[in-house]
Amino acid sequence: MHTKTFVAAAVGLGLLTLSACGSTDAKGAADTRTVTLVSHDSWAASKNVIADFEKQSGYRVRVLKDGDAGQAVNKAVLTKDNPQGDVFFGVDNTLLSRALDNGLFQPYAAKGLDQADPAFQLDRARHRVTPVDHGDICVNYDKAYFDEHKLKPPRNFADLADPRYRNLLVTENAGTSSPGLGFLLGSAAAYGDQGWAGYWKKLKANGVKVVDGWEQAYYQEFSGSSEGKKAGGDRPLVVSYASSPPAEVIYAKKRPATAPTGVAEGTCFRQVEFAGLLKNARNAEGGKAFLDFLLSTRFQQDMPLNMFVYPVIKDAKVPAEFTEYGPAAKDPVTMAPEKIAANRDRWVSSWTSLVLK
Questions:
Q1: For residue 228, how far is the Cα from the chain centroid?
Q2: In angstroms, rounded to a whole number, what is the distance separating the alpha carbons of residues 59 and 36?
Q3: Using CB atoms within 10 A of its CB, is residue 74 exposed (0-12), middle (13-18) or buried (19+)?
Q4: Which residue of 63, 96, 150, 317 has the lowest C-beta tally within 10 Å?
């Protein structure tokens, strides 16, 4: 998927980054006191919050990080008969059909699901996955660049193809990156089945740059990130998240009065992430307890400043920095999971031929 957790978070918040060592004893029997979570690389949670779950439930938590979301989902599918863990976290709405069609999860209606916004419950009839967080994939802009050049930042997809923004945008590969795929799906939602390819021809002609993943795009190519400047980034437009501006504020050496980056709200695509109980989990009861925990107010309120995403339950409070510097998009484009499932692979293949060749 994506690595959207800012590097500084690992230093400042005391995150849990344990490696799974397997959950069987010497005789091969299941270790029923350990819950193994399989996730993409962006999983992060405060140690004290995990410790509270361990104390209250009696289960020990192990975490196995398995690459970006696409890689992690594919590996989980390949190992579904003998899974690496009990719970999988990090499949989002762009990849959900791949996991569900391959029978990756067993049904479980987590406690607290009634508090989750129905809009995020994309498998309500069967409860194979539990919504955990949501966010918006959006183009971010470097305010200083646009102020210096007396140029208004882009507002929507159409603006990005305007010659005024030639050679300014960097995005991620839709075939290897979750934000890259989300940006492609956003353009398909905006321009339709017949119009998205023509739009990308315009972007290509306007000098869009494509890199493999989010970290490279944001930290190395984007001029507006604190680390991007050190790396010599010279593109003032990047496909990132609506929550990136508050992160720039929170982890600045000296907190600025306003965020140094902004969001082009007309480019936002809504992303929802899910967790599920793996079909052949060795510790199904522990996995169910952990899914309940993911919907608890304690975890949901801890999550934004760890993974820079928004909660899904209604009573979870969002940090003030999110409200002030990076509120969720008011009207993000969305796409039904069935439509994503029917078109994703074909669209990515066409996009690759069109943009990368």
A1: 20
A2: 10
A3: middle
A4: 150
> Please, what is the Cα angle at 234 between 232 and 238, to 5 degrees?
115
Q: How far apart are CA 346 and CA 336, in angstroms?
A: 16
Q: Residue 271 in contact with residue 136, Cβ under 8 Å?
A: yes
Between CA 136 and CA 335 the distance in angstroms is 13
* pLDDT value for 325: 86
Task: Return the number of other C-beta atoms located less than 10 Å from residue 152's C-beta.
Answer: 10
CA distance 250 to 307: 13
pTM: predicted TM-score of the whole model, two decimal places: 0.85
The span from the CA of 353 to the CA of 357, in Å, is 5
Stated as kind and residue range, the H or E segment containing 171 is strand 169-172
pLDDT in tens, 128-186: 999 999 999 999 999 999 999 999 999 999 999 999 999 999 999 998 888 999 999 99
By the 8 A CB rule, do 238 and 171 touch? Answer: yes
3-state secondary structure of 49: helix
- How many other C-beta atoms can be found within 10 angstroms of the C-beta atom of residue 114? 12
Specify the DSSP class assigned to residue 53.
Answer: H
The pLDDT tens digits for 76-113 are: 999 999 999 999 999 999 989 989 999 999 999 999 99
78, 88 contact by CB (below 8 A): no
**Phi first, then psi: what are they for 276, rounded to 5°?**
-150, 155
Distance in angstroms (rounded) separating the CA atoms of residues 228 and 238: 11
